[in-house]
């Protein structure tokens, strides 16, 4: 992909990014762009080879092992900002919210496989990265109804992939939505609403894209439920 050919910058203990035009973007600027322009990111992890092995006794659960994985995750934004950044691998995995009830979606593309088994859209669970061997492992389930943010992967998605494969790329969607708990002023729980989360570069983790959820709570549960329950 041409976007990955842009220059990438990293700094010790943090993140630096660069726009397509070559202008450096500080972490604080990334936060401002996310809040003001609703910038979202795609995360990319590349591997020299991998395996996809069914978990015994589990339906539609596989162990995905990627080998030859660099210790950084690349991120890039969609139009119009076109920002590219890098995050340290373990820091990214720790902050990405790989939650069992709402895991991130990803597209696994195998570069040299047959067209009938070269792309799968999956949910990602339980990431483990070994820096010494540069091996990254996930549990994954293949989505019967692909739901990747880049529609081209949904159109190309296959129902099965080879158990052993060569060079591959994992394209991970931005943070999955979360549940915001709505309460009355005295703390009585009213219910939950689903709201967006974004990767916060300053804190290196998924956080609410916005904290103004009072309108969503009142729309769903009435004006008395505009308060949060300490989410």
Report on this structure.
With 231 residues, this protein is mainly β. It folds into 2 domains: 2-172, no CATH class; 178-228, no CATH class. It is built from 4 helices and 17 strands. Strand 8 and strand 9 (119-130) form a beta hairpin. The longest helix has 11 residues, at 27-37. The radius of gyration is 19 Å and the shape is elongated. 31% of the residues are buried.
Map the helices and strands.
Layout: E1 17-19, E2 24-25, H1 27-37, E3 41-47, E4 49-54, E5 62-67, E6 72-77, E7 83-88, H2 89-95, E8 105-110, E9 119-130, E10 135-142, H3 151-156, E11 164-165, E12 168-172, E13 178-183, E14 189-195, E15 197-200, E16 205-208, H4 214-221, E17 227-228
Antiparallel strand pairs: 1-2, 1-7, 3-6, 3-12, 4-5, 4-11, 5-10, 6-7, 8-9, 8-12, 9-10, 13-14, 13-17, 15-16
